[in-house]
Design a protein that fits this description.
By secondary structure, the protein is mainly beta. Strands 1, 2, 3, 4, 5 and 6 form a six-stranded antiparallel beta sheet that branches. The longest helix is centred in the last third of the chain and has 8 residues.
Length: 99
């Protein structure tokens, strides 16, 4: 686990370890990656987080994962799987929905 965009706790799993230059798959379902290696990972935040794919909106498509005040990963969002909406609806959101 680490922290995503400030105070959002996130868990991740490594899907594919890949060559940085060619993008070809080196290993699937790898247990770890080392400094300088590239991978495709699935990140799952524990709280609602606003992200978009890098192609759609570059500023919301970049992320940093930090653990123990150290940056452990940086990258871009390739795809987003939207979960169910939960939690409170603010008064301003309720007013906007009525219009």
């Amino acid at each position: 686990t680490g922290r995503l965009h400030g105070d959002r706790t996130v868990s991740w799993s490594i899907k594919v370890k890949m060559d940085k230059r060619s993008g070809k798959t080196i290993e699937e379902n790898s247990k770890s990656i080392k400094t300088g290696e590239a991978s495709m990972c699935a990140l799952k935040p524990t709280k609602s987080t606003v992200v978009e794919t890098f192609k759609e909106y570059a500023h919301l498509g970049q992320f940093t994962v930090r653990d123990m005040k150290q940056t452990v990963a940086v990258g871009v969002v390739k795809s987003v799987t939207k979960g169910e909406a939960s939690g409170k609806t603010t008064k301003s959101a309720q007013k906007a929905g009525k219009k």
